[in-house]
Amino acid sequence: MNVTSKRIFLLLICSQALHSIEEYHFSLWEVLAPARFLSGLVSADLSVGFAVVNVTIVALGLWTYAWPVRRNSRYAVHLAWCWTILEAANGVGHLMFALASRSYFPGAYTAPLLLVFSGLLAMQLMRGRQAARSGG
User: Fold this and answer.
1) Angstrom distance (rounded) from CA 77 to CA 58
2) Residue 116 to residues 2, 62, 67: CA-CA distances in angstroms?
3) Which of 6, 47, 102, 116 has the smallest number of CB atoms closer than 10 Å to its CB?
4) Residue 135 CA to chain centroid, in angstroms?
5) How far, in Å, CA of 57 to CA of 48, rounded?
6) pTM of the predicted protein model
7) pLDDT tens sequence across 116-136
């Protein structure tokens, strides 16, 4: 992965951190059953469970950046694609819920950040693949 891809990846993970803070602030677990389920697996106090799950997600993203991505491991591009797809789906999902409800849905404010950075990262990853195929 090139330096630009690595920086965009880190921005994507930072966007996820902001997104998680927004979801927590607006109590996503109260309005989305899967969030409530996952939170309940971690703690009887759903707000604590939700925080733990989201801190774990962001920590995993930061680890992915710090270890495989920055060090250009052979799995870095594959992991970056996984994060790209996950975060794009996350962003789209929140915006779809907001549109369907015709009102604010927790996570909708920061969802565009996830879409922008996942889109930019996807473009960088595709350019890298094209450069590798052409020998450049």
Assistant:
1) 18
2) 19, 19, 24
3) 102
4) 31
5) 14
6) 0.96
7) 999 999 999 999 988 888 876
- C-alpha dihedral (106, 111, 112, 115), degrees to nearest 10: -160
Give the integer Cα–Cα distance in Å for 53 and 49. 6
Which tokens in the block code for residue 42?
């971690």
Q: Report the Cα 20 to chain-centroid distance in Å.
A: 9
Q: For the chain, what are the domain ranges?
A: 3-131
Sign of CA dihedral 43, 89, 78, 24: negative
3 state DSSP class of 115 = helix
Q: What is the mean pLDDT of residues 39-45?
A: 98
* Residues 27-46, mean pLDDT to the nearest whole number: 98
**For residue 10, is pLDDT > 80?**
yes
